[in-house]
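Shipment paperwork, digital attachment
Item: protein structure file
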Amino acid sequence: MQASLIAGLLAVAVSLSSPLQAEEPEGSRARISLAPSQVTALREALRADAAAARAFEPVKKLADVALQEKPHPVKKIVSEGRLHSDPEKIQSLKARLDLFKVEALGYAYALTGKTEYGEKAREFALAWARMYEPGDNPINETEFIRLMKGYDLTRILYTAQERAEVERWLSFMVERQKGAIRPAGSTSRNNHHSHRLKIVGHVAFLLADSDLIRWVVSDTRRHLNVNLYSDGSTFDFRQRDALHYHVYDLLPLIELAIAADKNGVNLYAHTTPEGAGLEKSIAFLIPYITGEKTHREFVRSSVKFDLQRSAAGDPSIQVGEKWTPKKAQRLFDLAGYFQPRFHQVTFPGEDGAPSFDRLLAAYRRWEGW
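Attachment content:
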């Protein structure tokens, strides 16, 4: 991150501490997105620092596009276990872009103060809550946390009845996810359960459900104990022989750890009895990013579908292809929330411009919360 950005945002974070929208009713303040002081500081940064404004620009651009659109919810998202050419999967992923729009609209509302962004986020979120029928596959539904964050940021704009409607729907999503756990199967140890915990955990913290929070914290620690190894590798890396899945497994766990930290729960620091932990598993990737090591993907994968996807020409799954470090960029941007050294890792071809995820992560560190 550029030195000017660091200096400028640090100054803003130190000087601005008054909460935004203190008049909000109890229960309406954000729980999984931006703290009030963070909103205040980020608003000032967007006015005062060009690099911060550049980081926010793609988010605002997506929100601006969404203002001119209508939501396109579907009853069911189909993705996991389907080839990339499957028409139903293609249609599902196109519809799922709405969830990214809700998130962008929520951040645009919070950081610009313009009500039209929040009202459009509300329109999209309600359309999905009224149409989508939650399933039990966490891979299909993992991006719903983007809608949750958009809702979190705009909840004050909903009527009490609308809030109850959205929150009942999210609670049903949790019921479906928890009901699908198969303790004896590999999905209880691999990225499936990481994504399931991310979904359930975000709902738990968003709704401040103390019983559900206790379950999530306990089961996340259990999951880390069987998912992470002391050498930094993950169950997914060993099962799929792919850094692609190592990253895909860790991303939801870091996202969950951030939501937990915002609510006073430290999952990031959990160390397994064998000495494994999230920080060690993220650092496992650094030699592959710097070029000290290389890895050919999926060569010894034990999952037959990897071979099928590769044979079908899926660009994301090609057996023997050299892993691309850029695929870990977002993981490192998010992980900098806990460990600043992850923001110091240089990725090949990096242009030095901070991402919005990195900007948000840096604010946690500088504000000291």
